[in-house]
């Protein structure tokens, strides 16, 4: 499974061969096929894990009625940045695969239903009925995910100093994103 995670994340579904996964795992192809039957089944497991990792953090927060909207934004910003610092390839992998098969993604998460019934949407409608909830969530997710997607362009080089500088910027971003969203909510 770990070898499949590595190869699928690096190459994506279309470019990955089961032989690549077997080589990465140090096993023969027959053994891989015996346990997982097909590349599609193995990929479905990996994709489900990755999507759950990426979106599983948000759902409990947006549906928690005990948190204020400000607390939710802060928890989402902190949690996502920590998650993406630990899994920097996650956004590119998920976004690429979602673009290639949006139906499978939409069905597995029920994002529209979760968001529509969330306490975050209710809080937003009370505070700013003129802002569509998708505008808020799209803005938050963009502010969180885009720095990781654009890191190779904005921070060329793959050395420890660059990683440290990027991590420091992301730590600062944990404080800035809630401030920016608060400014929007209170104007």
TrEMBL record:
One of its GO terms (molecular function) is DNA-binding transcription factor activity. Keywords: DNA-binding. InterPro entries: Homeodomain-like_sf (IPR009057), HTH-type_TetR-like_transc_reg (IPR050109), HTH_TetR (IPR001647), Tet_transcr_reg_TetR-rel_C_sf (IPR036271). SUPFAM superfamilies: Homeodomain-like, Tetracyclin repressor-like, C-terminal domain. Residues 17-36 bind DNA. It comes from the Bacteria. Residues 1-54 form the HTH tetR-type domain. PROSITE patterns: HTH_TETR_2. It holds the Pfam family TetR_N. PANTHER family: HTH-TYPE TRANSCRIPTIONAL REGULATOR PKSA, HTH-TYPE TRANSCRIPTIONAL REGULATOR RUTR. This is Helix-turn-helix transcriptional regulator. It comes from Flavobacterium agri. The lineage of its organism: Bacteria, Pseudomonadati, Bacteroidota, Flavobacteriia, Flavobacteriales.
């Amino acid at each position: 499974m770990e070898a499949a995670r590595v190869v699928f994340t690096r190459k994506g579904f279309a470019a990955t061969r089961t032989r690549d996964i077997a080589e990465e795992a140090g096993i023969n192809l027959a053994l891989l096929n015996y346990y997982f039957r097909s590349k599609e089944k193995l990929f479905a497991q990996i994709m489900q894990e990755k999507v759950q990792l990426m979106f599983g953090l948000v759902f409990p927060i947006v549906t928690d009625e005990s948190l204020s909207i400000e607390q939710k934004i802060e928890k989402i910003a902190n949690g996502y940045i920590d998650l993406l610092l630990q899994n920097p390839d996650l956004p590119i992998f998920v976004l690429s695969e979602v673009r290639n098969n949006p139906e499978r993604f939409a069905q597995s998460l029920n994002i529209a239903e979760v968001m529509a019934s969330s306490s975050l949407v209710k809080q937003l409608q009370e505070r700013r009925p003129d802002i569509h909830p998708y505008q808020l969530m799209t803005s938050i997710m963009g502010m969180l995910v885009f720095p990781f997607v654009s890191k190779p362009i904005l921070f060329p080089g793959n050395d420890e100093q660059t990683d440290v500088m990027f991590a420091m910027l992301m730590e600062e971003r944990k404080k800035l994103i809630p401030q920016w969203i608060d400014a929007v909510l209170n104007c």
